[in-house]
Amino acid sequence: MGRGRGRWAPGIRAAALILLAVAAAAGAAAGDPDPDELERAFPIVEPDHGHTKLRLSEQGLEAIRRIETPIAVVGVIGPYRSGKSFLLNQLLSLSCDKGFGVGHMRDTKTKGIWIWGTPVEMDVDGSKVSVLYLDTEGFESVGKSNVYDDRIFALATVLSSVLIYNLPETVREADISRLSFAVEIAEEFYGRFGQDVAFEPAKLLWLIQRDFLQGKSVQQMVNEALQRVPNDNGDKYIDEVNQIRDSLAVMGNNSTAFSLPQPHLQRTKLCDMEDKELEPLYVKRREQLKQLVSSIVKPKIVQGRTLNGKDFVSFLQQILEALNTGEIPSTGSLVEIFNKAILDRCLKVYREKMDGLGLPVPVDELQKLHEMANGEARILFDKQHFGKHHAAQSALKLEDEIKKVYRNFLLANEYQSSKLCEARFSECEDKMDHLQVLKLPSMAKFNAGFTHCNQSFVKDCVGPAKESYERRMSKMLAKSRALFIKEYNNKLFNWLVTFSLVMVVIGRFVIKFFLLEIVAWVMFIFLETYTRMFWSAESLYYNPAWHIIVSSWEIIVYSPILDLDRWAIPIVIMLSFGVLYWRCFGGRRKRGRGSLLPLYKNSYKNSSRPRSD
Question: Domain GB1/RHD3-type G spans what residues (predicted)?
Answer without folding.
Answer: 68-181
